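Problem: given the chain below (763 residues), write out its structure.
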Amino acid sequence: MRVWTIAMSLAAGMLGQSVAAQTQYDVTITRTDFNIPHITSESWGGVGYGVAYAYAQDNICMLAEEFATVAGTRSLHFGPQEKSVLGFSEVDNLASDVFYRSQIDLDTLRAGWSGQSSRTQELVDGYIAGYNRFLRDTALKDLPEACRSQAWVKPITRDDMLRLSEKQMLLASSLALAPGIAGAAPPSSEVARSAPESAGQTAMMAHAFEPHEDLKFGSNGWAFGAEATKDGRGLLIGNPHFPWEGPARFWQLHVTGPDNYDVMGVGIAGTPIPTLGFNRDVAWTHTVTAARHFTLYALVLSPDDPTVYMVDGEPVKMTARDVSVPMPDGAAPVIRTLYSTQFGPVVTVPGTPMAWSGAMAFALRDANSGNQRAIGTWLGIGMARNVGEIEATISKTLGIPWVNTIAADRDGNALHADITAVPNVSADMAQLCATPFSGMVADRVILLDGTRSACDWRKGDATAANNLLPASDQASRTRRDYVTNSNDSYWISNPRNPYRQLSPILGKFERELSLRTRSNFIETEAALAAGKFDHAAAKQLVFGNKSLAGDMVLEPVLDLCAGQQGMEAACSALAQWDGKFEADSRGAYLFATLWEKIRQNKGLWQVGFDAADPINTPRDFVVTGANADTALTALAEAAGDLEKAGIVLDAPWGEVLAVRLADRNIALHGGPGVAGVLNMQRGRPVDGGMVPQHGSSYIQIVSFDDDGPVADAILSYSQSTDPASPHFADQTELYAAKQWHRLPFAPAEIEAQQMGDPIRIEE
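Solution.
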């Protein structure tokens, strides 16, 4: 009998092991106020599984379309002539497909996959399984209207995730020049074979690769240390400026996983863990860095063949690749031939000296191409216990693609680290490898000599990947008062302690700061003068909505208005403006339109920029001569622009910038970053005004008490992109009213805000 008892026990144990082995993913999803998911699993695969499932519940159409985009199938599904956003430019779908099909190297990415940690691999594979599980659970006919019964909504594979990750790594670097890569073609025989010579041509060259200031990703981030806070612990403010539309929108989540991983924050489409947020001991945010993550190479071409370039005096044939893009309705695919070099793909800007001519071409090399270290880096950040461990993680991996890291910990330390994946190009190398044209574009891009193999990026044994600048040569500092960044370079993150000069690949040194950066320092210092920081002071700082441009320009322009015939209406409307971009600020749009017309004029200021006083210079608006005449003319033109658009001159800002729903408008606050508004909001024109396009998104204020993090936050555009969802605009209403949500982190807090029953899914 005892033998059978033992046998049955063994059989039961084996049966249990078999059942357990069949359950690869097991996760619980609990939703709290504003539909924030709290995802709990004992495995990394389960974490990815739950994150993908919850994300698809909120944003399936947007994510499915993004998978179609990075696969290069927009032409097939949406038509080749329809428009989409590629980098920072609106292009036709065919150009988008050509770029993704030519520049995402799946063979290299697949090879790199084998080198990823088991945690990363499990997270990504779990994400794939969770997304596909959602599609199995939800019939195509039951999806939101935007993608209901669409052929482009389909299960994904690892290749889809590799493509999406690669796109995100390039998002704020070479993707900005993607149209120039997709459109690069050898010149015709009629093209003149001459290099740029005139001053006008060189100015065009400089402009060709200079994104408009308001089109760049932005952000503000502050970390306050023990000397600047009321409780003597760290406090963080995160105010990233990201798109209100598309897959770069943030989405809130809380992940509790293995190895004591417990992190709350946000991610974007396809990220299996929070990429900025907080744990029990540290909080962090990111701002887009001023470092250059790619270089251009100037190539001298063979006089006999524009697809042959010269290196060390020897001809090198470009590599030609035919890219086939499938077309709709059974039409034949479109074939494009693109060219690449040892320095990267050829890039062109037709109609400028940066065009591919018979004499010269330009190649682009991106440090984030093939960067598969980011997820592992954010895992390390999420498991850090202090800012020193965050700094060590990003320094070791060099996996952060294109953002500063700003962090505070419960011990009262504040970190600003401008450590990212940048080319290993020192100041000496940039000078030795300069071309006759490098100085003309130096403010925006590092242009190197492609005629010399010695000008290839330096190899570094100490870096996580060859050819990247070591962290020891980048900028990082930890302080006990505060650090902040609003997208200017590493040079100043605390006015009391400017950084030493580093390689120009890391951005400008001792150069004029943006008005938003200057406003940041002015407002931060004023707040500290009034007392040490807590949540209330942080909320006032981040939503102050003051305009530094208004402080500097409004009164002088109103003085110029006195006695001006025919200007009474415009001057009267401008006089009503309170200098802020609050929802009820009258005349704000008139000023914003005026400022856009004059802000880049020469001779605007009496006192020029002074590197010894960068916060307060340039200043003092010129109120005489040509500048005065120009300002009055610009004001008259601005008034005319508003009248043509059907907007009254003294319209409240919130009537101009609003979320426009079927049954109501939500008036917004926040304004143009170029006008020195910290709470940046940029809109795109629609009938009757603007709708938000880019600006303050996930705003978090995080401090620490004895039990854990204390976090107030708001997601300005809400969790869901489905207009039918009750969570399409619920946090937008909160943002508009300047109200905050105390985030639930501890189990008791989660239980208090719980919405409905948790769901458990397994596979």
